[in-house]
Amino acid sequence: xxELLHEQLFQLxxxxxxxxGLCAPAVGTFIVQRRLSLLGDGIGHVALTGVALGFxxxxxxxxxxxxxxxxGAVAIELVRARGRTSGDVALALLFYGxxxxxxxxxxxxxxxxxxxxxxxxxxxxxxxxxQDIWVIxxxxxxxIAVVAIFGRELFVLCQDExxxxxxxxxxRFLSLLIAVxxxxxxxxxxxxxxxxxxxxxxxxxxxxSQQLTRGFxxxxxxxxxxxxxxxxxxxxxSTYSTKVPPGAAIVLLALAGFVLALGVGRFVRRVRTQESxxxxxxxxxxxxxx
Length: 290
Known about the structure:
The mean pLDDT is about 80. The N and C termini lie far apart (about 65 Å). Helix 2 (about 40-55) runs parallel beside helix 4 (about 85-110) and helix 9 (about 200-210) runs parallel beside helix 11 (about 245-290). By secondary structure, the protein is mainly alpha-helical. It has 11 helices and no strands.
């Protein structure tokens, strides 16, 4: 492991894994709390169209992916909020339109082929360059800044939208902010875990943390820790075995953590229940004696 730290490719991949492991669960906490767990998948499919548009126009695929993802996220939030289309139908539109648009644009791009999309669909963390790191770091910083600045307002919105509106909070702006932040997170993570698996890194660490904690802030911090562990662990596993795809390894490690936390969480809750029952019985005995 120490020898790997001296290799530049591993250093770049490690930085990318750390950044994605931090920001994906941070945004995912709000998405899960708002019951929009599939939002990352939907935006990921739209980002595929953005990547293909980059190949078609000869521009940077990451830049076009950011533009298209943000536009798609804003559009779907407006459709969900204003129109009669329900949230799940709106996400389905993202799924189908994004995939179809990406494949179509890549097919008509000069020298384009669906094989070029594989590194974006399934991740290619080993091929991350210094330029990619700067882009990922910039987007990750924007995501973390949004969470740090608007965290309290977003928490109120995710808990109860009507209460947030009654409290005078800009509900429409905050809803759009969550959607845009999720879009940026998808683009940040697409080179690490791939567009098809990015939603897993936004949701699974949060679900894992929820098995062990109760408070919102504690859940988020623990989810970020789990995200980093899964990202770095998957990277190390793929480095020692070239047959192990890094994106899949990261997601499977996150799932293994969830299964482990599920058992630990049940045990902890059972112990707490027993302790609470014993405490109540002691209080009743003291009251009877008195």
